[in-house]
What does this fold into?
Amino acid sequence: MTPKRAKLGNEPSKLTKDLVLLQNEKCIVKAFAGDLTLPILADDATLGYIFFGKGRFTLDAIVETPEGAVGKPLVKDLDTPFIMLGKVCNIANDLTPATVHDISNMGCRNSEEFLAKANEVFSRFSLDYHTRFNFEEDSQVFAFANEHDKWDMLISKEDKLVYMSKDKVYISKDKAESVDISPAGVLVAERGKTIVIGKNNILIDSDDE
Amino acid sequence: MSEDKDLKDEMKKLKEELQGLKEQLREMSEGLEHKRKGIYIDVNEKLSDYLGDVMEGVAEGIRGELKRSIFISPHHGEIKIISEEKERPEETARTDPAQAAAIMSALGHEHRLKVLDELMSGGKYISELQNSLPEITSSTLSSHLDILQEAGLVVQERVRGRYLITIPGRMAYKMANAITKQRDKQIEQRADLGE
It folds into this structure.
């Protein structure tokens, strides 16, 4: 797939209902009715969307080991912009053109101000990561603006999942392989074998007889 | 006339060549510009590099910890490696009695021990627990699960909703069983001795 230079569309739309943007066994990403969105375009194709408003991101960052489960669910209420790229679900039927009232609800006086704000956010994302996009068609990428002015990234492809934030990296593949890195330690689990590195100890465990 | 035509042809060729060179120059400067600004980053490549770095960090951490670790006690397919270089604070420091009491209190109910027993074989949905434990009403079961979660012995997935036993949960369940077995053994021994 040829890398593409992307830009934002210039007609803001509003979500007419709550939408599940991604759902698999490990995580759910939701956008809520009333969110404003702009498409991310390259040539004539829609590569994704940027959302302003509310959303919720849930990740079961739990690793099952032969000695018991480690980790806990991560639930984040999103009130900063977030971006969806790659294999995007079709949301066109759930959008309506945004009105001046909708835009003022987002703290902008008019459409131009909203577009300027959106482009500033998107430029920041582009500078942090890439201005040309080259995603495999079956992968889905989310970027959530965090409180450190950086991006928490979630990448999902078939049964593989990667989440990266300032204080957590969680990788899951095919239920049987997981990596969890956080201030509490490092956990690597692969098909019944587990290595846990805690603050004061290390545990290597295998369910092989 | 023929000289004029040759000249025009030559001029045309030169113009075409010049145009070609301009194109090449533009492409080269675009390439340089991209390299200089680091504009083009393939997300898949970036991710692979990132994961490579992460795994390298993990391997380094493991190597470092292994160097410090001496005692290996294998039993039932399990190897515990414990650092001998420094005394581990968790082993010497006293546990907060209030926290310990909260965990023991969570264990202190027959129904909750049955729930833990069910979860020892793997994660279960509440409907599966209800089927396995028909003697516990659904509201009571929910209440027991809340207590076990509060004590950190069980964790619930938010997406699928399954309940999973945690490492402390397994340890607590095994400890409860071990104490009970030891006590039964002692009772048997006393009976054998005719006490």
Summary: The mean pLDDT of chain A is 86. Chain A touches chain B through 51 residues (CB under 8 Å).
